[in-house]
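In this notebook, the sequence line spells out the residues, with the fold written below as integer tokens. This is how one looks.
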Amino acid sequence: MTNKKTKFDWILLVILFSYFMILLDNSIIFTGTVKIAADLHLNQHLLSWVSSAYSLTFGGFLLVGGRAGDIFGRRRIFQIGLVIFGLGSLLVGLSQNAPMIIGARAFQGIGSAILAPTTLAILVDTYEGNERTKAIAYYGAMAGIGASVSLVIGGVFASLLTWRVGFFINVPISIWMLYLSFKYLNVKSGKPGKLDWLGTITSLIGMSALVYSIVGEVCRLAALVIAVIFLALFIRQESKTVAPIMPLRLFADRERVGAYVGRFLYLGAMLGFWFITPQLMQNQLGFSALMAGVAFFPLTVVNFIVALQVAKLTTKLGNGGMLVIGTTLTLVGMLGISFFTPQTGYWLGIALPMAIIGIGQGLSLSPFTAAGVAHTKIEDSGAASGVVNVMHQIGGSVGLSILVSVQGMFHSSIDGFQHAILIGSLLLLLALISSIFLILPGERSTK
């Protein structure tokens, strides 16, 4: 353990609050798009870029952000990420036109790309044994709980105040986190070295092009071709250089590979679910944007309760066992929601299966995180955390794109929703298979 904890765990507070800020901003964009478009006079194309600009830089800089902490020191890189994210949030809140908000969102995405992997790497460096299991449980729970709670908070800001408050609030939080990081964080890089600039450039172009091929509106095929070419060059570079930003040895461990594949598929299903379900509740059940966010409480509350038990359950069932149970329950809940009709109503058609999803989500996200950084050396924890977040970000974008596309193939919104949820269920089934055949055997082979 590199840090002696104080009586109150300020380090974990810094990690979780920083992660929550990222989740909050994503949800505010979901709930505030209508008012953002009205305030800044944005058409649908420009409005899509408010989200896409952030996704491009977030996805593009994740691997670099993760590896930079390994080389230059976690605290320093974390503080740089906080400053960029806080300043970007301020600029988004102050935006008066399309170029300003799109540019500010892109800048904010760079801060998120630094914060997301660095906070997880700090967690891995700081805690050991059962304390690490508990900390990862809280971190993983934040991924689900934060995303759900943020829908409510975003709805409150957009409906009762202004969407700008959701970005302005990040400024004092970032300043407070920066103060706490100077006072309590004392983590160092595991292995000083130089950043692989060729790997950095090829990964930036490759990852950004890959994200654009998913979220962009024109030249998507060309972007995909560019992504394949530059990611191939990136992998070739990483296999040759002595100081890779993504050591290929990370993929030599069966458990980690299973975690990367499983997280990609699981988040693909869940982000699509989080995106299309609030729309269904508004269009079919007459819910307001705020009430659609509140309607996620069955998932959120159950998720929170279950997440508090994850550390205890992991010691009994093992990480892989938890994943199999959690992913299975998530799949059962998702299949339940696929039967929704206006006649079944909210409580039976959505709330009940959503509570089952909450149990599964609470049991799954923390173990996926733990497996993604399992057996890593301290000098690779930042890079491993970067890959975990890449799979989270890219998987979510791919899944969202697939589910929305499937939904749009049907004239009936109910039919479209049901088939989209069934595709999400298929992604969860594949995630379950990866847990059974990759994570479980990989976990057992190291015991």
Remarks:
- The first helix runs from residue 10 to 40.
- The chain has 16 helices and no strands.
- Residues 196-242 form one domain.
- The CA atoms of residues 140 and 366 lie 4 Å apart.
